[in-house]
Specification:
The chain is of the alpha/beta class. It contains nine helices and eleven strands. It has helices at residues 22-38, 94-102, 134-157, 180-191, 212-215, 229-238, 274-277, 282-301, 306-312; strands spanning 6-11, 60-63, 79-83, 106-111, 118-121, 124-127, 173-178, 195-201, 220-224, 249-253, 318-323. Strands 2-1-4-3-7-8-9-10-11 form a nine-stranded mixed β-sheet, sandwiched between helices. Strands 5-6 form a two-stranded antiparallel ribbon. β3, α2 (94-102) and β4 form a beta-alpha-beta unit. The chain is globular.
Length: 324
């Protein structure tokens, strides 16, 4: 498998006072976005401008401070990868990532150079490439994800790593993504059997065609916005076929927009419209998505059977709901 220089950020539980608080990073990021927007400079900004502390770790660079020691029981926390939407960055999903850690997971947020709006790799800013099709972007992101899983395995086995023996990998990885990142998560699950559960948040597909359902053997969660009827119709029709893995779920959220699955709709960082954010209150959307995403990964990565009841149950906020 061909790899390229990229980076990832690991969100994990700790009691250390030296830890960087995800909310603080997110607030600095969105504040800078608003300032750049006011100056007509565009947004979002680069990682360098918000002064992230990223240390080198071979090809995959890892956000890790050796003074920030994980909790002793972190070995019980399954690992979930995260890919952001096209042109977005992981900090725009801070609410989701840090709440998933509170729910008992380690989240590895991936950077995809040339696809994210801007990335910083080996001290060099890498901006978006305009010469790639969406399918080509997904192929690159899938390679990034597979390389990241290799690196996580290395960190878990290394005597020099603060994560030595502290990552729960026996039950496989989870993968969640928004928009293009959701499509990446799905394709990665097809190509790599280390993915044991995959969550797609309002992501369309640029591969697979009619054979896609038969290729995906990993339990999936698909959450769609109000504007994304095609996605829910597709997965709703698949939900009743024998080839779909048991424990898969799809739903559409009333009054939601494409960016309702990120922090952008309550940041004020970008001039997003009602079409993009919908009219659902952002805090209500956050609570809803976290409830179902956490239950999905608890069921499939932690074997928590009561979570199945959460996934089976319809919700007044859904215009459509399917469970296999």
């Amino acid at each position: 498998m061909q790899t390229r220089a990229t980076s990832m950020r690991i969100y994990y539980p700790t009691l250390s006072e030296e830890a960087t608080k995800p909310d603080d990073e997110k607030d600095r990021y969105f504040k800078l976005c608003r300032r750049r927007r006011a100056l007509g400079l565009g947004a979002p900004a680069s990682e360098e401008e918000i002064r992230l502390h990223i240390c080198d770790a071979d090809v995959i660079r890892v956000t890790a401070n050796p003074d920030v020691v994980p909790l002793p029981d972190m070995h019980e926390y399954p690992v979930i990868l995260l890919s952001s939407g096209f042109g977005d960055v992981p900090l725009e999903y801070t609410t989701l990532t840090q709440e998933m850690v509170r729910k008992g997971f380690v989240v590895v947020a991936l950077t995809h150079p040339g696809i994210d709006v801007v990335a910083r790799v080996n001290g060099v800013e890498v901006h978006q490439r305009t010469d790639l099709s969406n399918y080509e972007r997904i192929l690159l992101e899938t390679a990034d994800a597979r390389a990241a899983m290799d690196k996580i395995n290395e960190l878990n086995a290394s005597n020099d790593s603060i994560f030595e023996g502290k990552l729960s990998l026996a039950g496989g990885f989870g993968y969640m993504g928004h928009s293009l990142g959701g499509a990446t998560a799905m394709l990665t699950a097809i190509k790599d059997d280390r993915i044991h559960a995959v969550a797609d948040l309002d992501g369309l597909f640029y591969f697979g065609g009619s054979n896609f359902a038969n290729k995906l053997r990993t339990p999936w969660l698909v959450a769609g916005s109000t504007i994304n009827w095609g996605l829910l119709y597709l997965f709703g029709s698949w939900a009743w076929t024998t080839s779909i893995p048991e424990g898969s779920v799809a739903f559409q959220v009333n009054d939601s927009g494409h960016y309702s699955f990120s922090d952008l709709c309550h940041s004020g960082a970008l001039p997003l419209s009602e079409f993009q954010c919908g009219t659902i209150p952002p805090t209500e959307m956050d609570e809803l998505i976290l409830k179902y995403v956490a239950a999905f990964f608890r069921l499939h990565l932690q074997k928590d059977e009561p979570s199945r009841d959460v996934l089976k149950k319809d919700n007044d906020a859904f215009s459509a709901h399917f469970y296999k």
